[in-house]
Here is the input.
Amino acid sequence: MENNNKKYDQSRKKDYVSVSNDNGIVNEEDLRQLKDLETNDEGFKDEEFQKHKKAGSPIAPLGGGDAVYFDYSDPVPDFDEVIAIQFQNAGKIYWYYYPEVKEPGNELKQGDIIVAYSERGMELATVLNKCKKDFQRQNKINFIKNGFLRKANDQDFERARKLEEKAKDAWKICERLNYELDIRMKLVKVKYTLDDSKAIFYFFSNGRVDFRELIKRLAYELHRRIEMRQIGVRDTTKIMGGLGPCGMDLCCRRFLHSFSPVSIKMAKDQNLTLNPNKISGICGRLFCCLAYEDEVYEAMRADYPLEETEVFDKESGRKGFVKKLNVISNNLTIVFYENNSDKYEEKVVDRSLIEFKNGKWYYNSGAEVVNLKAVLDVEPVLSSEKEVLGTSSGSKKQNNNNNKDNSGNNTRRRNRRNNRNSNYRGGKKPDSEKTQ
Here is the structure.
């Protein structure tokens, strides 16, 4: 019998949670969209995905010069012997071994533009301000040696400007070939390496693309090596940029060097509306900013019972469950079912009224009643206050006399109206007056 009641309570609990959700009923289509929002871009190549990252291997087999990753036999570099750089705005941070930076005349400061080898080839990079905590989190294989070339000069900047113009022409050629070959992909970015040895085409597509014929034609028309990189929706949005719902530039475009995983649980913990259109960014994935406050909410929710946790009333012994938490307001919503009926009572209670004891959560409803009595207790009104408010005995008598006079006047008016109506019926004269 107890097992049957337990199954019955659990079924009612599930139905109640799904139907009485503050965000409305989540249908199958919304559930499918919510699952799609937290889908990772597995199978796609990130723009700065390190494909050949192995201990002691070259950072780029073709066009990477002598730049290699640290081997296990190499000593761990000091903090003063490395520099932190990035090859694009808010891009991935790379740690390059450059011990000459300590020598006079070779100093590098934040914001300097240098020429270095990346996994794509020779490129311009920006020097960042180093953080010791980030440095300590790096493995030995993350450091790159022989990758730094020189500080960028005017000739390097002029060459980069000309290559940007050539990249625009290559974009038009690629779009024309896509139309001729009927290739369905979205071209996002075209980039030339600084030594003008390779052209890199970044594109987005929902599936795999057969671009073998496209590469042949591009190599024939551009006369250089061609590299095609398929990127995900997040990297596409990062390259293109835009404005978020907050009205500011996208976080991934400004300062996010890498994407962290975001889940629907973060939105639930923060009591956000589980509407796919309201918690997704322009990239079609969950907001990256959901992860900013997730640690704070987890710390605040640690002292609260989880949703759908059983709660027992100390006074009446009723059993209910937690429907929703609001850690910001320091309260939680509890649902109590009536015995053997579908009726329920929903209460919003303060966290101080909930306690954990003997492995169970209890609701102290008696303490809430005491608090309500203290709030409802009002001091009696004094006689001096009655005079100020115009409620003294003399004012009451005067009001009674006025009411009597008004009632007498109303009675006399009513009698005259009745006499008039008895003599005149419907506005017609009586028959006695007609004969006269």
Notes: The chain has a mean pLDDT of 78. Residues 2-40+261-295 form one domain. DSSP finds 13 helices and 16 strands in the chain.
